């Protein structure tokens, strides 16, 4: 079934379509949330809530929100950031260092049980520190171009081009 | 459109990241529908991001939690079934509103009632005090009448009828003379009301020779209801006469205005 058709059925509250989309994107969404909240149990909890929210607001999705995954990505980041800003979470005092998602990826490398996951090492081959930073900000933390430029102290126009070349490297690594 | 240049700008990567505006998203969706190379580029970028984000997921993965998600959805929908009862809550809300409106109307009604009662009470109090005054007046007037009556009935009283004279033959008066107390009560009921600026004056007369002595004025003739006037009379009167005089009275009687005259019988 084509993604567009699946999403359209999901918008009409088709439970089967929802389950399919969940199986397609749950790990990704949970990965993004985990990267922000840095706690497996909390991440799983928020991840479930995000899909519940997506289901309850399914009719609000349309192409002005971008790709379906992108829409989910935005819901997930907002929920995770809300959690991090909440009082209970602040007590843990964990920072949002940009190298964290890399740590997660490297930690998982040895013990990864999932068969269809592309090898992390190969995924990150030759990926420079500045690529890790910009990908973390734009995809995992939802920074705008302007915010990312300020965070990384680079011109705003550079954000777009640097990000493109970094994504291109990952695409190249996937292809290998 | 130069799709190659467009793709190279890096905007599609930002599109997948979800950090563009809705207007930009719509533009890109339109280009993607029009240019397959843009659509394919977007899918390739998304695949890379999917690979990356999936690799960042917790080790146990998320797939096993679908049941929990379904349970949460069911739990969230369950209250909707309960919300079939809003009619009940609505009823109680309606009853509540109705009760409060009734209460407000009732309070207003009671307030107006209270106001009316208060003004009624005020009126009653006024009427009461007016009545009390009247009773008081009546009592006083009764006392006066009784006093008058007892005075007139006194055994020492000598009654002298004063007949009408040439000025007004129809007029008359009576004098009740208590010699021992040297008092005369003039009953002037039969005299016409004096014109403005004039007053009746009562005279004690000696007949041989004719010597008039003023006994006093019948002041406030018009307002005095009983028309009975008490005057001192230390004289050995042989007759009483009443004349009309200018206000304040006169030294000697104006006999042309002699209204009544009566001789004391010995």
Automatic annotation (TrEMBL), chain A:
Keyword set for this entry? DNA-binding, Sigma factor, Transcription, Transcription regulation
Among the GO molecular function terms of this UniProt record, one is: DNA binding
Pfam families, alphabetized: Sigma70_r2 (PF04542), Sigma70_r4 (PF04545)
Specify the domain of life of the species encoding this protein.
Bacteria
Q: Which InterPro entries match?
A: RNA_pol_sigma-70-like (IPR039425), RNA_pol_sigma-70_dom (IPR014284), RNA_pol_sigma70_r2 (IPR007627), RNA_pol_sigma70_r4 (IPR007630), RNA_pol_sigma_r2 (IPR013325), RNA_pol_sigma_r3/r4-like (IPR013324), WH-like_DNA-bd_sf (IPR036388)
Q: Look up the record and give one Gene Ontology term from the biological process aspect.
A: DNA-templated transcription initiation
Family affiliation: Belongs to the sigma-70 factor family. ECF subfamily.
Full protein name = RNA polymerase sigma-70 factor, ECF subfamily
The species this protein belongs to is Cellulophaga baltica
From TrEMBL, chain B:
InterPro entries attached here?
Anti-sigma-K/W_factor, Anti_sigma_zinc_sf, RskA_C
Annotated membrane-spanning segments are 91-111
Q: What organism is recorded for this protein?
A: Cellulophaga baltica
Q: Name one GO cellular component term.
A: plasma membrane
Compartments where found: Cell membrane; Membrane
Q: What is this protein called?
A: Regulator of SigK
Tell me which Pfam families the record gives. Answer: RskA_C
Per the record's keyword annotation, is ATP-binding included, yes or no?
Answer: no
- What is its membrane topology? Single-pass membrane protein
Task: Please give one Gene Ontology molecular function term for this protein.
Answer: sigma factor antagonist activity
- Give the range the annotation lists for the signal sequence: none
Q: Which residues form the Anti-sigma K factor RskA C-terminal domain?
A: 98-254
Coiled-coil parts of chain: 114-155
Q: Does the keyword Acetylation apply?
A: no
**GO annotations under biological process?**
regulation of translation
Q: What is the lineage of its organism?
A: Bacteria, Pseudomonadati, Bacteroidota, Flavobacteriia, Flavobacteriales
What UniProt keywords are attached to this protein's entry? Answer: Cell membrane, Coiled coil, Membrane, Transmembrane, Transmembrane helix
Q: What is its main location?
A: membrane
